[in-house]
Specification:
35% helix, five-stranded parallel beta sheet, alpha/beta, binds phosphoric acid mono(formamide)ester
Length: 326
């Protein structure tokens, strides 16, 4: 049996950033920092999740999230199973709830889920005895993306509080934006949203976010420039006149970036559309862009989340905001 240290983690699932405290977020980031160091060594494996089973259930495409959750589980010694909707009995008409009940009967220890519908992962978590981790649900939340973004920023700039973070692009459809706004707000950052009116949700001011429709104004003095993809798969109809016009007004290029702080970092969760939301040379600029670093941090953050959730004794009743049983 593994000698697993205890943790302050009080939640059973990680369904979103909403409800996490600053100390819970810091605990995940601190542990992830240790896993960054481990992942840079030749021997990357530990056995802390030895004997445990992790199922990755993806109803949407993914490169970064699915691969890094698989790597994370394997580097901690878990048995990892990958399932996609197209290769499951969902294709034969099985419901989400029946799929959950079926998987639950196999006694997994964690279930990592991506689903196109907001709230689907929370619904699934109510049917599972194991920890459920949201790997992105519709336009609702993508908590581990926000955590890896925070880790990237904290390692580069040493803090999150007091930084000015400009989130630019398709905020309306973005679960990445929502989770980042929640997390960075909890940790004391100053938040700006820059987008055309058609790509902004209504409640930005209630979330403590300053809204801009002009890139030059919104980027002025920013520490972090976080670009977002136009999420066409979540759009019914046209939200922008053309991608060419969108790039002209909202694509990040050298002229627009010059309004931000000289040392401002460029971020993008990926996948990126070069020449639509970001200039290709800027995306690859090793002095300004931390896009590859974000991917590296993704593995470490997911190891930290899997590790911390596994420390919660299985016989302890579920408590906290990320569970249905409070
Ligand atoms: N950032 C992100 O979620 O990327 P994937 O869709 O490739 O997982």
């Amino acid at each position: 049996m593994n000698d697993i240290p205890t943790s302050a983690v009080s939640y059973r699932h990680l369904l979103g950033i909403e409800g996490l405290s600053p100390s819970e977020i810091s605990e995940i980031l601190d542990l992830a920092d240790e896993y960054v160091a481990q992942n840079r060594r030749v021997d990357k494996k530990r056995s802390i999740l030895g004997g445990r089973t992790q199922i990755n259930l993806f109803f949407e495409t993914s490169t970064r999230t699915r691969t890094s959750f698989e790597l994370a589980g394997k580097r901690l010694g878990a048995d990892v199973i990958n399932m996609t909707a197209t290769a499951s009995a969902i294709k034969k008409g099985e419901t989400l709830i029946d799929t959950a009940a079926t998987l639950n009967a196999m006694h997994p220890d964690s279930l990592v889920v991506r689903h196109p519908h907001s709230g689907a992962v929370a619904l699934l978590s109510q049917k599972m005895d194991c920890s459920v981790i949201n790997a992105g649900d519709g336009s609702h939340e993508h908590p581990t993306q926000a955590l890896l973004d925070a880790l990237t920023i904290r390692r580069r700039l040493g803090r999150l509080d007091g930084l000015t973070v400009a989130i630019c692009g398709d905020i309306l459809h973005s679960r990445v934006a929502r989770s980042n706004i929640l997390l960075l707000g909890i940790m004391g950052a100053r938040l700006r949203a820059i987008a055309p009116p058609t790509l902004l949700p209504g409640a930005m001011d209630r979330m403590g976010v300053e809204v801009f429709h002009d890139m030059a104004e919104g980027l002025a003095g920013a520490d972090i420039v976080m670009m977002l993809r136009l999420q066409n798969e979540r759009m019914n109809g046209a939200y922008v006149p053309s991608t060419r016009e969108y790039y002209h007004f909202y694509g990040l290029d050298q002229d627009k970036l010059a309004k931000a702080k000289p040392e401002a970092l460029i971020m993008h969760p990926g996948p990126m559309n070069r020449g639509v939301e970001i200039d290709s040379e800027l995306a690859d600029d090793i002095n300004r862009s931390v896009i590859r670093e974000q991917v590296e941090m993704g593995v470490a953050v997911r190891m930290a989340v899997l590790d911390l959730l596994s420390r919660r004794p299985s016989n302890q009743p579920p408590v906290g905001p990320n569970t249905d049983e409070t």
